[in-house]
Design brief:
The chain is an alpha+beta fold and about 450 residues long. It is about 50% helix and about 20% strand. The chain folds into 3 domains: about 120 residues, Trigger factor ribosome-binding domain (Alpha-Beta Plaits, 2-Layer Sandwich), CATH 3.30.70; about 190 residues, Trigger factor, domain 2 (Orthogonal Bundle); about 100 residues, Chitinase A, domain 3, CATH 3.10.50.
């Protein structure tokens, strides 16, 4: 096989591939022999069909298939070995290939259009000055997280008078003769939909009797009413009147005080020994979580900064449009101008980021990807206040995430970004700036 690559301009080239009979004949012969073994033709036993008949019936199709497979393999080998900066895939020049006679010809020349990646140099150094935002947690945020930890170590206690959120137990009785009676009924007035009915329970005490209308209180919700009244849903409408509720117990969930038990449950045995240390540890949690967001903002700012320095990259839009349309599948609408321009913008940044990764010699292995997956898992647990999650549990969750192809691809990209951000931090000039969560979010939305 012979390859010739001729640049048309800075953004495209023509790749010519010449295939001679010696390149494919053995492959075709092998495939025809396989056909002969399997062919089921009337009048011939399996494996005994004359080869001449096999060649007559299948020869051209097999020849075309084997040449096509050979082309695909060898073209991408040539592209890789010769380090051709190709975008997408080679596009056959249909006018040139229309004159090929697959049945009669022995030697073939195929021509393909190739979109070439633009030439540019992404340079970052100390002359590049960028802002790094240090997000500051508020006292309210720290208080909220501390309270959340205290809630998880809380307990249920019996109390004498009702407050919103308490649970009531008692006897629920319909205010008619021979009406429904539910003993040890359990109810939380805070879940009632009607504020007037809810207000009837304010401040009630053990042994008090409250008259109310369950249907009104729960806005006629059949599922809630059937559960409360211990009847079928279809029977609910027949019991839409008033009921009495005699309170026998009032249970309240009481959060724990901030003590050593809470500290240990949150961060491990004796990792924290005072409320001051506890709040400082929570602040560290927020800082760690915020650093991920700050790093992402820095990468987006680097993107804007570099794209302004480099300028608009030049592409062969005609070839790229055809590649995108081909990838959408036969019969699909052509890519819109808006989507096409968005794709070029993302492609430009992808190429810039790829060049930076090469310059910084960034390499990713399975441990890097697993590490990013574990951090993502740790963040998920942290959102539920679970800070002291065992490493083996994190790893198990992370490995499950990596079994999903789309998730794994996203985590690989994230692993590249993490190393790229760290490398960028080491070469540019960063100006640290403390900002509130609100101000940071505004800046992110401005760049969205």
């Amino acid at each position: 096989m012979e390859f010739t690559l001729k640049n048309q301009d800075a953004t495209s080239a023509i790749l010519s591939v010449t295939i001679q009979e010696a390149d494919y004949s053995a492959l075709v012969e092998k495939q025809l022999k396989n056909f002969r073994q399997k062919a089921n033709i009337p009048g011939f036993r399996p494996g005994m069909v004359p080869m001449a008949l096999i060649k007559k019936q299948y020869g051209t199709a097999v020849k075309a298939e084997e040449i096509n497979k050979l082309l695909q393999t060898k073209i991408f080998e040539y592209i890789r070995e010769n380090k051709v900066d190709m975008l997408g895939e080679p596009l056959p020049i249909e006018e040139q290939q229309a004159g090929i006679n697959m049945a009669e010809d022995k030697d073939f020349t195929f021509e393909f259009e190739i979109a070439l990646a633009p030439k540019f140099d992404a340079v970052l150094d100390k002359e590049d000055k960028l802002t790094y935002y240090k997000i500051q947690p508020t006292d309210e945020m720290i208080d909220g997280q501390a309270n959340a930890y205290a809630q998880r170590c809380g307990e249920y206690k019996q109390v004498e008078s009702y407050e919103n959120g308490d649970m009531l137990k008692g006897t629920l009785a319909e205010s008619i003769e021979n009406g429904i009676v539910v003993r040890e009924a359990v109810m939380m007035p805070s879940y009632m939909k009607n504020d007037e009915q809810k207000a009837l329970f304010a401040g009630v005490k053990v042994n008090d009797v409250v008259t109310f209308n369950p249907t009104t209180a729960f806005d006629g919700n059949e599922a809630e009413l059937s559960s409360l009244l211990k009847i079928e849903k279809g029977e609910v409408k027949a019991h839409a009147g008033e009921f009495t509720f005699t309170v026998s117990e009032i249970t309240r969930f009481v959060a724990s005080e901030l003590n050593q038990d809470v500290f240990d449950a949150a961060f491990g045995k004796d990792a924290v020994k005072s409320e001051e240390e506890f709040r400082a540890k929570i602040a560290e949690q927020f800082a760690s979580r915020f650093e991920v967001e700050s790093d992402y903002k820095l990468l987006m700012d680097v993107r804007s900064h570099l794209m302004n320095k480099i300028g608009k990259l030049e592409f062969n839009e005609s070839i790229l449009r055809r590649i995108m349309d081909m990838n959408k599948g036969e019969g699909a609408e052509s890519v819109s101008e808006e989507d096409f321009q968005k794709s070029l913008t993302e492609l430009s940044w992808h190429l810039v980021k790829e060049q930076l990764a090469k310059k910084f010699e960034i390499k990713i292995d399975d441990n890097d990807v697993l590490g990013v997956a574990k951090e993502a898992t740790r963040d998920q647990f942290a959102q539920y206040g679970m800070a002291n999650v065992p490493d083996d549990l994190l790893e198990n969750y992370a490995k499950e995430m990596l079994k999903q192809d789309k998730t794994r691809e996203a985590l690989i990209n994230r692993a590249v970004d993490v190393k790229l951000i760290q490398a960028i931090k080491g070469v540019v000039t960063l100006r640290n700036k403390k900002v509130s969560v609100e101000d940071f979010n505004k800046k992110v939305s401005e760049n969205a």
